[in-house]
Amino acid sequence: MTEEYKPPALPSPFTNTTPAPTLLVQGAEAHLYKTVSLDPSIPAALKVRPSKPYRHPILDRRLTRQRIIQEARCLVKLVREGVSVPAVLAMDWEGQGGEESAWGGAWLMMEWIEGPVVRVVLEQWEAWMKKHATALDASQMPMEEDRVRGLMKRIGLTIGGLHKAGVVHGDLTTSNLMLRSPAQGQRQETGLAASAVSMEGEVVLIDFGLAAQSTQDEDRAVDLYVLERAIGSTHPRSEQFFDSVLLGYRESHKGAGSTLKRLEDVRMRGRKRSMIG
Ligand SMILES: Nc1ncnc2c1ncn2[C@@H]1O[C@H](COP(=O)(O)OP(=O)(O)OP(=O)(O)O)[C@@H](O)[C@H]1O
Ligand SMILES: [Mg+2]
Predict the structure, then answer these.
(1) Which stretches within the chain are classed as H helix?
(2) Whole-number mean pLDDT of the chain?
(3) Ligand 1: does its nearest atom lie under 6 Å from the Cβ of 40?
(4) Which has more pLDDT, 224 or 102?
C-alpha cells in the first residue's frame, strides 16, 4: 500500500500565499519552493529548512537557525561584492507559525533565477553527443567542444570571483551552478550550434548552506577539486574540458596561481586515498 505523499507544512505566512508555493525539490536538508514576492508577477525561490524531529528541540532550533543565517549572510556579502548569486529578499529564523504550533524551522526567500542548472545542460549535451557525434562534420565537432569549453571557462571565472570575495562554497557540484537565461531578444548564440543545447547565460552560484569565509589556498583548492570530481562522475564526456574551468579561474584574480599549485597537492592526496581504497 502506498501512502499519498504529503509535503511538510509550510511556515507562516506562506500558508496564506496565493497561488500556494510549489514544491520543486525536497532534499535531505531543505525544501525548495517557487513562490512570489510582494507582487504576483515577481517570482521568488523559497528555501525552507524544516526542524528535525529526531534532534533535541533546542539544539535543532540552533543548528537550523545557524545554517540559514550563515547562508543568508554569505549571499548578502556576495551580492555586495558583485558575485553572481541570488539576492536575499526575506528570511525568518524564529521558527514560529506553520500548521504545527512549534514549527522550529527557518526559511530564506531569494531572487528567482530563471534558467537551468548546469547539470541539466551538460546532461542534455552529452545525451545529444552520444546520439549524433558520428554524424557531425569536421567543423561542427570542434564548435560543439568550444561551446562546452566556453561554459567551463565562465564557471571558472565565476568561482574565481567568489574566492576573491573571501568565500569558499563547500559543495560545488553542477547542481549548484545555474545558467541565467538571457532575456527574450538578448540571445547571442547563432543558429550555428549543431546540438541546440543552449549554453548561454550568466553563471550563477547557488546553495551556500555549506559555505565559509576563507582565503586559504587549501580551502579554495578543495572547492575546485570537489567540482572536478563531481564533473568526472556526473558528466564523463565533459570531464576533458575541466581544464577550461582552471583557465577561467587563473584569469579571475591575482591569487589564483598559488591556489592552482595547491590543487596539485589536493589531487595527489585524492589519488592516494582512492588507491588505499
Ligand atoms: N534562486 C533560485 N532560483 C531558481 N531555482 C533555484 C534557486 N535556488 C535553488 N534552486 C533550485 O533548487 C535546487 C535546490 O536548491 P539548493 O541547492 O539551494 O538546495 P539543497 O541542495 O537541497 O540544499 P542544501 O544542500 O543546502 O541542503 C537547485 O538545484 C535549483 O534547481
Ligand atoms: Mg544544492
Answers:
(1) 57-80, 118-132, 140-164, 217-234, 242-252, 256-276
(2) 89
(3) no
(4) 224
Residue span of the structural domain in which 215 resides: 118-276
CA 261 to centroid of ligand 1, rounded, Å: 31
What is the rounded distance in angstroms from the CA atom of residue 63 to the CA atom of residue 51? 9
Do 239 and 183 share a structural domain? yes
Residue 265 has pLDDT above 60, yes or no: yes
Shared domain check, 234 and 211 = yes
Q: What is the pLDDT of residues 139-164, one digit of tens each?
A: 888 999 999 999 999 999 999 999 99
Task: List the single range of 49-53, 142-146, 226-230, 252-256 with lowest mean pLDDT.
Answer: 49-53
Per-residue model confidence as pLDDT tens digits over 64-79: 888 899 999 999 999 9
112 lines ligand 1 (CB under 6 A): yes
* Binding site membership of 189 for ligand 1 (Cβ less than 6 Å): no
Give the distance from CA 140 to its chain's centroid: 30
Which residue of the set 39, 60, 137, 171 is catalytic? Answer: 171
CA of 176 to the centre of ligand 1 (A): 7
The verdict on 267 and 231 lying in the same domain is: yes
- Atom index in ligand 1 nearest the CA of residue 32 equals 12
Q: Within 10 A of 214 (CB to CB), how many other CB atoms are there?
A: 16
